[in-house]
Amino acid sequence: MSRCLRLAAVLIASAAVALSGCDRPPEDAPAARPPAPAQSADPSLGLVTDSGQPLTDRRNAWRDGLNALLTTPGPDTLAAADTRWRDLYDAFNRHYLALAARACAAERLAVLQRLDTWPLYPAYVDALPAWPDSGIVNDPALELTGASLRRQQGATADGEVALGFQPIRLLIAGAEGAPRQVEDLRAGAEAESDAPAAAVRERRRTYLKLAADQLQADLNALDQGHDLTLTSLRCALETLDDRLASLQTHRQATAPEEGLYIPSVSVEILDATQPASALAQLSADANSDARAALESGYPGFQAALDQAVESESWAPLGEWLHAHGG
What total of structural domains would you count in the chain? Predict the structure, then answer.
């Protein structure tokens, strides 16, 4: 049975929406925002985070941890790679507002979205106990290249997520109830009878390398300096607001065999980092010019930020965004 047919069976069995063509309406589309006022001559602004170094350090640590796992698969290297993934995902989310601002300034929001798309269909990536032959990993008819994986991203449905943080974690850690085993990432066949399973393992290893390379390339694309404007700062706030709204909608989708899925560890990291990190960045003394520009261009921002900081909640800023245009 081909991967597409297996995936259709997964979606039907889980009562998810059946795969449809590209003209289907988007899932959970955010409510339309009023048009933003024109910004014909935005001043160049900055958005300072605590430091760019921790994200760089964690990217390097993740790369080294993954290389160690693929070179010498074992309990220690598997656990270390998982820890490095958690550390990098934590840093990514703590820098999310600044990354979103850069993505908006450079018109690279699609890159930011590809870095971390959820919820997803886990059986689109790899096998689950109920569907042992499903996923890209188990489809030998699909060539594994960076280009092919980019084509598989959202091929016919939003939940078809092939790249980014979430598929990588599925490949190195498995899903709830189906943890990754060291043997799943070993290279080579131990005997002739092991050849079919070895071919699947090699595809998993190749997929993991390609997805990790794309992750680093996408982070590089958002690591370049871009002049931020009032428009791009506002766009970043809207992007984070949509992300937090999506998290509220999907935070209970932690059962991998019930359709759309987000790992519980991802929910935990998201909750631990946002919106606290964004509020801290917006309130920092170094970002006073950015705050002043937002208040001047979109009155009410400062009051909403003050309320958000006092209540330790994004809600006041979310309400301000929707009430005052976006």
Answer: 1
